[in-house]
Amino acid sequence: MAAEDTGIHWYKYSAPHTFYPLAGRLIPWFAGLALVFCLIGLYIGFFVAPTEARQGEAYRIIFIHVPAAWMSMFIYVVMAFWAALGLAFNTRLSSMMASALAPTGALMTFIALWTGALWGRPTWGTYWVWDARLTSELILLFLYFGFLALEAAIEDTRRADRACAVLALVGVVNVPIIYFSVKWWNTLHQGATVSLESAPKMATTMLAGMGLLALGFWMYCIAAALHRVRSIILERERRADWVREVS
Amino acid sequence: MNWGGWSNFWAMGGYAGFVWGSYGVTLLVLALEVYLLRRRRARALAAIRRTRHQMARDIDESTS
Helix, strand, or coil here: B50? Predict the structure, then answer.
């Protein structure tokens, strides 16, 4: 048996009743790490990082704006990945993971748009502009809302999972559009401050604060998704024997 | 970064509304999500208890 040779029983955790207790044990770790990373990141962001020469203190919005924007895109890709697995292999837990990620993804998108608006006003002179970056990020929020609305509208969970998976997969083309929009079009939004191709265009302490908050947001999103997937498992497996034993 | 006093810190160089408006709303929606997560779990557990009672009643009725 190939699965046993590796020593790690991956298949074991693809079943809701074995994943449920594992997720429960992981949540405190991810939540704890989220708190530690965010607190250190905020300390560096507000008490170590210097004032920015052109934007003054308004730039400090970057410490939550960029991590939230990254997570909004990353969660969508992960959600589409799980939805696709569920669609292809009919694995129950995959579809539940996709459903568990959607609300947190929508939340991160909202934070990115809100903080972006409040940062845009003092630096660009406007809260909102219909440029490629902002519009495609708004479309991302609507894709998350569409996923959640579709899920709520279809009573049969299997059919809802399939419909949501198709929506998630069609919508995934929007993610590279958001990411590369500042390169492909001439937008009011600035280009990437941190990219793989060039050295970061910001002070080291600013970068450290943003990096720590990005890690903190990441850990928070994992904790939130794991917590939600446990509820979804309980909701969907309400009549199973093992559920009556754990509750 | 030396702010030279807390009042300067809260003033954020004149951008207090923008900076604290961003951080405040972020904290608020994260707190809201944590509340909703806990409520969803409590409701799921309550639904299981109802199902369990219902199943026990069904068995009682079928045997009596």
Answer: helix
CB atoms within 10 A of CB B37: 20
Cα→Cα distances A62→A20, A27, A98, A149, A182, Å: 36, 27, 28, 31, 17
Whole-prediction pTM: 0.92
Mean pLDDT for each consecutive 10-residue tract of chain A (247 residues)? 53 83 97 98 95 92 97 98 94 95 98 97 93 95 98 95 97 95 83 70 88 98 98 92 79
3-state helix, strand, coil in chain B (%, to 5): 90, 0, 10
Q: Give the separation between CA A29 and CA A62, rounded to whole angstroms.
A: 26
Q: How far is A88 from chain B (nearest CA, A)?
A: 28
- What interface predicted TM-score (ipTM) does this complex get? 0.91
The C-alpha atoms of residue A21 and residue A26 are separated, in whole angstroms, by 9
Query: Using CB atoms, which residue from A50, A115, A247 is nearest to B45?
Result: A247
